[in-house]
Amino acid sequence: MTTYHNLTVADGVNVFYREAGSISNPTLVLLHGFPASSFQYRNLIPLLSDSYHIIAPDMPSFGFTTSPSNYTYTFSALSSTISAFLLALNLTTFSLYIFDYGAPVGLRLALHPSPFTISALITQNGNAYLDGFGHPFWDPIMAYWRSHSATDRQYLRDNVLTLAGFASQYTTGVPAAHLDRLDPAAWTLDYAQSVAATPGAADAQLDLLYDYRTNVELYPRFQAWLRERQPPLLVAWGKNDPAFVPPGAEAFRRDVPAAEVTFLDTGHFAVETDWVELAGLITGFLGRVVGGKKDCGEVGA
Question: What whole-number distance in Å separates Cα of residue 81 and Cα of residue 71?
Fold first, then answer.
């Protein structure tokens, strides 16, 4: 059973999160991506929660999480909020699933490992290499990084932060035979919560798109952490993703030669089309490297 909670953390952010599975089982933290929320894991969580304690928060500016009016929307701030959230839950040892925006947020946690121990890492289209950027998808975003101009910001507002733009992130790269697996509620909710919810919501998203460049600056440090720590690593990648392309998945093997790399015939949001296959990959991987179920109790049961 999945239960739903809110927790106000040290920086004043009220974090909404989903929880499932027995707390006596190994914990797996799921970090979502843009423009989604923990809602993207609604199908995956029930397939994992018999063996793992699942925690899936909404990051600031996404989903049902709310932030103070003076919150600064940067990836440093997002990572600090997630750090405070995990500490408030007394979670210091866990496996980590990272996707899209969740990748730099989670890897920033890894750069400052005390007090966190990441037992295993799963990246699903969560990039950490220049090789992974897909073009022309990133071209207007990178143009904004270079210019920081009002014109480039408006272009992103008009062409990325739209309902059609969000829908395309889900549908692009999905085989025609699998399009009927996509629930339009996903991108409709994303738009309602991330753009239309409040007058300043779109600006928070634009601030994060601009700040993403700081993650790229940290890529050498992310890669050094991978080389030095050699974490158990599963790379599960939608091979038709226009944003983060297959060379970004293969690149993880440069730093973690034992990484398990699997490509799925889908797009960016593999968890929305191939959640059953992903669950099998995750439970098999985690079962080998961290173990699994200790009892059948569930949170809220």
Answer: 10
Residue with tokens 């995750």: 282
Q: pTM for this structure?
A: 0.96
Q: Which residue has the tokens 């600064």?
A: 72
> Structure tokens of 174?
């999905």
Q: What are the pLDDT digits (tens) for 39-88?
A: 999 999 999 999 999 999 999 999 999 999 999 999 999 999 999 999 99
Q: 27: which strand partners?
A: 53
SS3 of 150, please? helix
In order of 223, 254, 282, 285, the CA distances from 236 in angstroms are 18, 16, 9, 11
Positions annotated as catalytic residues are 268
Distance CA 236, CA 263 (A): 6
pLDDT band at 301 (very low <50, low <70, confident <90, very high): very low
CA separation (Å) from 27 to 147, 181, 271?
42, 28, 19
**Does 295 have pLDDT greater than 80?**
no
Q: Where are the alpha helices (DSSP H) in the chain?
A: 45-48, 75-88, 102-111, 139-147, 150-159, 163-171, 185-194, 201-229, 246-250, 252-255, 270-273, 275-289
Average pLDDT, the chain: 96
